[in-house]
Amino acid sequence: MNKEAYFSKIPQSVLVCGSDFKTLCTFIGQWGARLLTISEAEVAKCPDFHAVWPTGKMRQISVDALREFNRNVYVTAHRDGRKVFVIYEADRLNGAAANALLKTLEEPTADTSIFLVTVRPYDLLPTLRSRCWFVQVNEATSEERDEVLEAWLSDFKRYILTVCMQKNDASPMHMYGLLYRLQAYLSKKIENLSLASDEMLSEEEQAAQKAGLEKQCLQGIFRSVEQTLSATVRDPQSFRSAAEFYPRWVSALEQCYRRTEVNFGAVAALEAFMLSFCSVVSQKA
Fold it and tell me: Would you say the pTM of this structure is higher than 0.70?
């Protein structure tokens, strides 16, 4: 996307969404710096930059946080210029908080820009979305490959083919070996998750932010598993063996992913999927 085309504008209410949360945060930092006429490194500490994050185990943005947010909107800027307000993970606004935000979006002060940032825009109230200018930010293309995950997915595909060809559960040790490797990968991946603004957040906000990044990481892994299943079905060598099972595999994968939404471990959810996957195949044996 042409960032300069956006950064030259001075908006009031904007819904910024995309598939990668860290990319969205970088984009908002750059746009905020341009609006406040400061460097990107200074944005988080600028008194005219105000941010709200989810807090607590439920990762909610409370009505109390929004009331404080709303009060600040109508306070004069410290630097006699523009004020920038950002609600990160705006889909985590609870019902009362979302309603508290509506009037502010309708009547912001002339010197104020309000950004709602989310990877799940359609989880917001339609009345919130309708009051915002909509900006879609695509994830930046990266030269860096995740070779560990690629190797795991390659072995996972071979496991799929083995089960399909043999019409049985193949080797349980092979399956649990894959799960053990995935657990090690996830642990390291999650340990390294962070955003540049960590030092500006409270402990509750940091915990909620970490949980949000973990969730996005898990979404990416489940999406990669589904893409691997789809690629296997499209492969001429495995089509006949795999195509008949594909709809039930995807259904089982979706059910297992939903378990992670209620704090069911990702590896346990994938274990449940792989057991279901083998069961589907063996029923056709």
Answer: no
